[in-house]
Amino acid sequence: MTENNNIRYSKKAGLLPGSLVHIGKKKAENIKLTLFSFNEEMYEENEIIDTVKMLPSLDDGKVKWLNMDGIHKIDVIESIGKYFGLHNLLLEDVLNTQHRPKIEYYEDHMLFTLKMLGINKSGNKIISEQISFVLGENYLISFQEQQGDIFEQIRDRIRNKKGKIRQKKADYLFYALIDAVVDNYYIIIEHFSEKVERIEQQVIDNPNEKTLKEIQLLKKQLIQLRKSISPLREAVSSIIKDETDFIEKENIKYLKDVYDHIIHLMDSIESQRDTVSGLKDLYISELSNRMNNTMKVLTIIATIFIPLTFIAGIYGMNFDNMPELHYKYGYPIAWGVMILITMGMVIYFKKKKWL
Amino acid sequence: MTENNNIRYSKKAGLLPGSLVHIGKKKAENIKLTLFSFNEEMYEENEIIDTVKMLPSLDDGKVKWLNMDGIHKIDVIESIGKYFGLHNLLLEDVLNTQHRPKIEYYEDHMLFTLKMLGINKSGNKIISEQISFVLGENYLISFQEQQGDIFEQIRDRIRNKKGKIRQKKADYLFYALIDAVVDNYYIIIEHFSEKVERIEQQVIDNPNEKTLKEIQLLKKQLIQLRKSISPLREAVSSIIKDETDFIEKENIKYLKDVYDHIIHLMDSIESQRDTVSGLKDLYISELSNRMNNTMKVLTIIATIFIPLTFIAGIYGMNFDNMPELHYKYGYPIAWGVMILITMGMVIYFKKKKWL
Amino acid sequence: MTENNNIRYSKKAGLLPGSLVHIGKKKAENIKLTLFSFNEEMYEENEIIDTVKMLPSLDDGKVKWLNMDGIHKIDVIESIGKYFGLHNLLLEDVLNTQHRPKIEYYEDHMLFTLKMLGINKSGNKIISEQISFVLGENYLISFQEQQGDIFEQIRDRIRNKKGKIRQKKADYLFYALIDAVVDNYYIIIEHFSEKVERIEQQVIDNPNEKTLKEIQLLKKQLIQLRKSISPLREAVSSIIKDETDFIEKENIKYLKDVYDHIIHLMDSIESQRDTVSGLKDLYISELSNRMNNTMKVLTIIATIFIPLTFIAGIYGMNFDNMPELHYKYGYPIAWGVMILITMGMVIYFKKKKWL
Amino acid sequence: MTENNNIRYSKKAGLLPGSLVHIGKKKAENIKLTLFSFNEEMYEENEIIDTVKMLPSLDDGKVKWLNMDGIHKIDVIESIGKYFGLHNLLLEDVLNTQHRPKIEYYEDHMLFTLKMLGINKSGNKIISEQISFVLGENYLISFQEQQGDIFEQIRDRIRNKKGKIRQKKADYLFYALIDAVVDNYYIIIEHFSEKVERIEQQVIDNPNEKTLKEIQLLKKQLIQLRKSISPLREAVSSIIKDETDFIEKENIKYLKDVYDHIIHLMDSIESQRDTVSGLKDLYISELSNRMNNTMKVLTIIATIFIPLTFIAGIYGMNFDNMPELHYKYGYPIAWGVMILITMGMVIYFKKKKWL
Amino acid sequence: MTENNNIRYSKKAGLLPGSLVHIGKKKAENIKLTLFSFNEEMYEENEIIDTVKMLPSLDDGKVKWLNMDGIHKIDVIESIGKYFGLHNLLLEDVLNTQHRPKIEYYEDHMLFTLKMLGINKSGNKIISEQISFVLGENYLISFQEQQGDIFEQIRDRIRNKKGKIRQKKADYLFYALIDAVVDNYYIIIEHFSEKVERIEQQVIDNPNEKTLKEIQLLKKQLIQLRKSISPLREAVSSIIKDETDFIEKENIKYLKDVYDHIIHLMDSIESQRDTVSGLKDLYISELSNRMNNTMKVLTIIATIFIPLTFIAGIYGMNFDNMPELHYKYGYPIAWGVMILITMGMVIYFKKKKWL
User: Fold this and answer.
1) Which among A207, B277, C141, E67 is least surrounded, fewest beta carbons within 10 Å?
2) What is the Cα–Cα distance from C176 to B145, expressed in whole angstroms?
C-alpha cells in the first residue's frame, strides 16, 4: 500500500553495477533543465535545450544552479555527469528513487538526496518524490522527479535580490533549498496531527471496524514518514560534524538550524505514534465496554422475565389438584408476586449500577 | 489538544531564512523591559522605555540583567540584538516559541532556551511558556512570553544582597534563574503524582469510559512533560561537559546540582508513566472482571430457572394420558422436585464460588 | 503510595541555592554523633556531645570515622562542615534525602550517597533511608537518617581487630560499609522473590481483583527498588573507572567485587520484573478462562433445555385437532424424544470436550 | 520449523577443535570445481577434476576465481586449503553451514560468509544456502552448498568483457558477487511484501484460526530473514571501516553502495515486522468485533421474545378467575400488546445502532 | 522456582569481606583433586590427596592442569590459593557459586567463571553448575561443583596426544575446556527448541490452563539461559579485545571462534523467546476463538428455539375466542410456520458462516 514497501528492483537485478537505469515510476513525461547563474551584481535564467552545447562554463566566478525536472532521460543525465565530472555511482544514486536520504562525499563535489513529501488530494496517501543535490565548489545541481516544486520562492529571492542569497555561494543556496523542503514537512505533520484528532473523536463517538483500519493506516504512514525523515537527520548531522569543505564554516550555523527543525519534527512524529498506539488501546477497550453493555441488556431482560415466565408456567400446569387455581384471588395474587419480583430485580440492578 | 502537537508554521513557511517573525500565540498585550545593574556595592533597577537611548553601557564593570516580558514586538528585539551584537539566527530562535529547549554557542555569548511550565486553573492542561536566556561576558538577557514569573525572589535577593548573588557574575545569576525554573517543575510533577493516585482510586472504585479517557490524557501530558524537560537535560549536560568560557569553573558545581534535579525529575516522570500504563491494564482487567460478573448473574438465573420452566412446561402439556396429573400429590411432588433442583444448583454454584 | 513519588519540595522552593534545609521526613527525634579513631595498634570510641570542642584533630595519623544518626539538626551539620572544610552544596546534598544515589568529587574529599532499604513490619512497603558518606584523606563521615543500622558488625571488627580493617585506611572502611549495605539488599530481593512466588500460586489457585492489585503494587515496588539501586551502579562504576585518589589502587578490587554484586542484584530485579509482568498476563488469561467456563455452563444448560421446553410448549397448545394428544402412548413417546435429544446434546458436548 | 532453530551439532560436539567436519544437510550429491582465470586481454574457464594437479599457479598475474559447488567432500577442501595456505579454522567455518554471516581476517586472505536466500516452490518456506568467499591478493574462492546459482550473469560479463570486471582485480569480482546476492534479497522481500498484503486482506475479509497461524509463521520468517541479513550489515560495515588491504581504496565506494542496499533491506524488514504485529492486533480486534456482533444477535432475539413469551405464558395459566380470557377482544388485544412491545424494542435497538 | 532467583546470602551477610565461605548448595559429598602435567613428550596424571605436600612445582616447564571436583572444603581451597599465590577475593569468587560468569585479571593469573548447564531427568528444569578457571603462566586450575563432567574427551586428547593440545600451553587447554562447555550449550538449546515446537502444537490442538503455565515456565527458563550465557559473551569478548598476556596472540583466533558460537547461541535464544511470546498471543486468541464458538452455539440454539417457543406459547393461551384453535388445519399450519422460521434462521446463519 505504501510505495516504499513495494520494491520492484527487477529492472536492475543482474545488470552490471554502475550501469545507469532509472528505478522508480516515471512521474513526468518531459524533462526540463533550467540554469540560474548569478552573483551579487547580476543574474541570468535560461532553459537548457541541448546539454552538450549549452552547459555553462564553470570558471566565470558566478554561482550556477542547474535544476532538472524529470530524471528518466538517461542520456541527458550522462552528459551532465560527463560535463561536471560526476562518478558513475553518483549518477546511479540520482536515478534510483528508492534510496534512503543520504550524503556521499566525492573528491570535488558531494551528493545529498532527500524526499520531498506531499499528501494526495483525497488526503489519505503520502506522495514521496526524491530530490538529489550535487554540490560543488561553485555550482549546485538539483534533480527532481517531476516539475512543480516549492522552490519558486527561492527563485524569486534570486531574481529580486532578496536576503543574502545573491551575496553567498552555492552552499548557501543548497541550505536554502533544504530548508524549504524541511519547512514543507511541517505541513505534512500538521495534516497528520489533525487526522489523529479526528480519529480520536471517532473512537470515542462511534468506533467501528473502519476506525481500526484507519488507525492501522495512520500507524503505517507515520512509520513511512519517520523512515523518510530519520535518515535525513543523520545526513545533516554528518555535514555539521564533518565540517566538510563544501560548506563554509560560517554557514554551518544555518544547517544547525535545519537540524533543530528535523529533531523537532522527529519528536512530533514520535508523539503522534504514541498517541496512535494509545488510540488502538482506547478502541479495544471501547469495544469491551460496548460488549459489556450488550451483556447487561441481555442479563437484565433475561433475569427479570425468566422467573416470571416460570411462575406463569407453574399455573399453566394441568394437575387436577392445584388449589391456587381455584382461589378467587389467585390470579391477582400471582400478578402481585410477579410485580414484587420485578421490583426486587430492578432495585438489585440499580444497586449494581446497571440501570 | 496539546499545544506542541498543533504546529502552525504557516506564518513563516517560505520566508527568507533569518527573517524575524514571532511564531506562537501572542500571550501578552504589552511588552515590558526591566534592567537590573549591580555589583557587590550597589544595584540599580530601571524600566526601559526607549531601547535606543536607554540601553546600558556594557563596560562599567557591573552585571546587567535585562528582562523582556512579551516578545511580539520585533523592532524592540531587533534593536536589542543590534545593541548586544546578537546573530540573526539567535533572534529567530528567541522569537520562535515552538523550539525544543536548547543551547547554542556564539562567539561572545550563548543562547539557552527552556520551557516554563504551569497548570491551568481547571487543572487539566499544561501551560508552557518559552524563556530564552542570552548570557554574555557581563550581561544576561532573559526573554519571556508574558509578564508574571517566578523570578521575583531572585530579584529580592539582588535588592537585599541575600546570598552570593551580588558578589558573583552574570553566570551565577543565569544559574539562579534556571534553578528557579527547575524547582518549579517539582510542583508540576507533584500535581501529576496526585492526579495519578486519584485516578488509580477511581479505576478500583468505579471504572467507566471517562476514566480511560483521563488515563489517555494523563499519558499524553506526561509525554509532553518529558518532551519539555528531556532536551533541557541535554542542554545543561552540554554546558557541564564543554566547560564553556561563559560559565566560570567554580560555578559548574551549581549547574551539576541543577543537572541532578533534572535527572531526578526525569526518573519521576518515567515512574509515573509506568504507573499510568499499569493503570490502563488495571482498567481493562477491571472491565473483564465486571463482564465476568455480569455473565455469572445471567448464568445463575438462567441455569436455575430454565430447567424449572421446562418441568412446568411438561405438566402444561395436554396429552390425554398423563397419569401424574391425576395423582393426588402430583402438584406438591412437582414443587418438591423443583425445589430440589434449585437447591442442587445453589450448592453447585457455591462450590464454584459464584455465590 | 511510594515515598519517592510524593515529592514535597515546598520547604525549599524559592530559597537561595546553597541554603541548608532538611528535606524529607524527620525520622529520628535525637541525633547521635559517634567517633571511631583507630590505627593498627589501638582504637578509641567516643560519643561527641559538643561538636565545636570535641571534633578530632585530623593530623594524628589515625583513621577517623564520624557517624551521625539523625540529620535534622542543621547547626551540627554546619559545624561539621566547617570543621572538615566541606562545600555548602555537599551539605545540602546530605540534608536532601530525596536525591538519587550519586558520587560527587570535591577537591580533598568526595561525597557518596546511597539508599539503605528495609521492609516494614507488615511486609508490604519498602522503607528507604539515605546514607551519605564523605570520604577524605584519613577520615570518613557517615550521615544516617535515624539510629539503628547494619554497621554494628563492622564496629565489632574494628573493636576486635578482625580482618584487615585496622591495618587499612579510611577507603577500606568506606568499602566495608558500602559492602554491608549492598549485602543487605539481598534480603530485600529475597523477600520479593518469595512474594512473587506466593502471588504466582494465588493467580493459579484463586485469582481475584485483589491479586491484580498486589501484582500492580509489586511492579511499582520493583521499579522503586531499581530506581534505588541502579544509580548506585553508576556511582560505583564511576569510582572504579576514574581511579580517584581517594581510593587506593589496591582497594579498587574490593569495589569491583561490590560492583559485581550490584550487577547481580540488577539482574535479579529484571528477572523478577519479567516474572511479574508474566503474572499479569497469566491473570488476564485466567480471567478469560473462567469467563469461558461460565459461558460453557450457560450454553450447556440453555442448549439442552430450550429445545425440550419447546416440545413441552408444542403439546401445551390448545388446537382442537392435535392427534398426538390422543394417542395412548403420546406422552411416553414425547418423553422418549426429549430423552433422545438430551442424550444427543450430551454426546455433542462430550465431543467438544465441554463436559 | 525454521532451519536455523533446529541446531544439530552432535556430529561435532566433543571433537578436537580444528577438526574438519561438514555441519549441515548434504544438499548436493556431487561436487563441482570451476576455475576462471582472466585479465584484461584473455580469460580461461576450466573444470577442475584433480585438485592436486590442476590447481592454478598463483603468480601468473591473472585473477583467479575458483568456485566450488557442494562442500561435503572434506579431502577436496583440505587440498584446496593446503594449496592456498588457508588456516584450519577458516576451513572449519566454510564447512559449518550454520554460522552467522561474518568476516574474518587472516594474514594474506580474508573469509567472508553470507547466506543466499530463496523461497521454496509452495512459497511458504525460506531456503537458506551458505556461500563462503576467500579473498586473497589475486584470487577469490567461493564455496557454495549446491550447484545452480545467481552468478551466471557475472560469468557472462567475464566471458564477454562487459563492464569493468576484466580490468579489475579479485576484489572487484568479490564485490560483484556480493552485490548479486544482495540484489537477490530484494526478490525475497518483495515476496513477503505481497504475502503481508494478502494476509491483511484476509484478516479484514474472513479472519479464522488459520490466519493467525499464517501471521505467526510470517513473523517467524521475518525474524529469520533479519537474522540472515543483519550480521551481513556488520560484516560489510567492518570492511568499509577497516579499509583492509584486500580491497583497493577506490573499490570501497562500491561496497558502500552494497551497504546502502543492505540498510534499505533492513528498513523494509522492520516496516514489515511492524505491519505484521499490527495485523495480529487487527485480527484480535476483528475477533472481538465478531463476538460483539454474535452477542447482539442473541440479545436482540432474546430481548424481544422473552417478554412476549411471558405474556403468552400469563394467558396460558389455568386460574378459574381470569376475566381477560373471557373478553371478546381479549385475544386481539393480547396480540396488540405484543406487537407494541416488539415495536418498542425495535426502536430501542435502532437507537442503540444495533439494527 | 529457578535456582538463581532464590538467593540465599544469609551465610555470608555481615561477615568480613574476603572471608571464605562456600555459598550455594553443597552438591558433592567428597572432593577430588586431579593433576595433569604434560608437555609434548610426556604426560602424568595424579590424584592429589594431601595438598600441602603433593602440589606440583611450577617451574619444570610442563603445563599443569589441576582440576578440583567439589568446592566445599575451604581449607583445601585455601592451601591451593596459598600455593599458587591467589588473591583472597579470587578464592571468594570461586566459592560463591551464585556469581554471574565473569573475568577478572590479577597480576600473574586471571580468573574466568562460567556456568555448566544441564537438564534434569524429567526434562523440566535447568541444572546449573559453576566452573571457575584460574589461568596462570603455565598452569590452569579448574574448580567444579561436583564430579562428572564433559571434559573427559579433552583428557583423552592429552593422554593420546590427539590434536595440538600437547604442543600448546595452558592457554590452549583453557580454550579447549571453554569450547567444550559452549558446545554443550547447543544440547540445551536443542532441548528447548523441541519443547517449544511441542507446546506450539499443543496450543493449536488443545490449549488449556496447563499450556499457559508451561509457556510461562519456558519463558522463565529462557531468561535464565540468557542470564547464564550473556555475561559469558562479555567475558570472552573482553579477553579478545584486551589481548591479555595470559593468552598467546595466535590463540586468540580460537577464542574468536568460541565467541562466534556464543553469539549464535544468543541469537537462537532470542528467536525462541520471540516464538514463546508469540505462543502466548496464539494461546490467548485461541481462547478468544473458543469463547466465540461457544457463544455461537448458544446464539444459534436460542435464536432458533425462542421464537418457536413463543408461537407454542401463543396457542397455549386460554382465551375463549381464538379462532385459529378451531380451524381444522390450525395445528399443521402452526407446524408449517415454525418450520419456515427455522429454515429462515438456518439460512441466515449459513450466510453469516456460523454453520
Assistant:
1) B277
2) 54
Integer Cα distance of E146 and E158 in angstroms: 22
A72 shares contact with chain D (CB less than 8 Å): no
The length of chain A in residues reads: 355
pLDDT (tens digit per residue) in E37-79: 998 888 989 888 877 777 777 778 889 999 999 888 888 888 8
pLDDT in the model for residue B10: 40
Work out whether strand D102-105 and strand D63-69 pair parallel, antiparallel, or are unpaired.
Answer: unpaired
* D159, D45 contact by CB (below 8 A): yes
Give residues with Cβ within 8 angstroms of D51, minimum separation 6: D33, D76, D79, D80, D83
* Beta strand residue intervals within A181-307, DSSP E: none
CA separation for the pair B185, B122 (Å, rounded): 18
CB pairs below 8 Å between A and B: how many? 159
Give the Cα separation of D75 and D70 in Å (integer): 13
Residue B56, phi-psi category: left (phi > 0), alpha (psi -120 to 50), beta (remainder):
beta
Q: Hey, is the C-beta of C262 within 8 angstroms of any chain E C-beta? A: no
Alpha-carbon gap, residue C80 to C70, rounded angstroms: 14
- How far apart are the C-alpha atoms of C71 and C77, rounded to whole Å? 7
- What is d(CA B212, CA A200) in angstroms, rounded to the nearest whole number? 13
Instruction: Give me the amino acid identity at E274.
Output: D
SS3 call for D138? coil
- Best interface-test mutation with C: which of E331, E335, E337, E342 has the largest number of C CBs within 10 A? E331
User: For the segment A51-80, what is each residue's pLDDT rounded down to a tens digit?
Assistant: 777 777 777 888 999 999 988 888 888 889
Interatomic CA distance for residues D66 and D36, integer angstroms: 6
| Lookup: cell for C274 | 519479567
Q: Torsion angle of alpha carbons C251, C257, C263, C269, nearest 10°?
A: -120
Which of 84-123 (E) contact D at CB < 8 A? none
Q: What is the pLDDT of residue C7?
A: 34
Q: How far is CA A184 from the centre of its chain?
A: 12
Comparing CA positions, the residue from B30, B22, B2 lying closest to residue B146 is B30
**What are the phi and psi torsion angles at D44 (to 5°)?**
-125, 150
**ipTM score:** 0.71
Count other Cβ atoms within 10 Å, centred on residue A296.
21
Q: What are phi and psi of B20, to 5 degrees?
A: -85, 120
Write the single-letter amino acid at D204: I
How would residue C147 be classed by pLDDT, with cut points 50, 70 and 90?
A: confident
Question: If we measure between CA atoms, which residue out of E220, E218, E228, E11 comes closest to residue E128?
Answer: E228
Note the pLDDT tens digit of each residue in D223-252: 889 888 988 998 899 888 877 788 888 888
> Does B337 touch chain A if contact means CB atoms closer than 8 Å?
no
Q: Work out whether strand D139-144 and strand D63-69 pair parallel, antiparallel, or are unpaired.
A: parallel
Q: Burial of E53 by CB count in 10 Å (0-12 exposed, 13-18 middle, 19+ buried)? A: exposed
Q: Which of E294, E325, E328 sits opposite C296 (nearest CB)?
A: E294
State how far the Cα of A5 lies from the Cα of A125, in Å rounded to an integer: 14
Kindly tell me if the per-residue pLDDT of B264 is higher than 80: yes
Beta bridge partners of B34: B47, B67
Q: Give residue-wise pLDDT tens across range C299-331.
A: 899 899 999 999 999 999 888 888 888 888 889
Contact D200, D274 (CB under 8 A): no
| CA E20, E23, E29, E34 torsion-angle sign | negative
Q: How many residues make up chain C in this entry?
A: 355
Q: C234 near B260, Cβ under 8 Å? A: no
Nearest to D125, CA basis, from D56, D62, D16, D217: D217
| Contact across the interface for E271 and D6, Cβ inside 8 Å | no
* Residue E278, CA atoms < 13 Å, CB-side half-sphere: 25
CA of E37, closest CA in chain C: separation in Å? 32
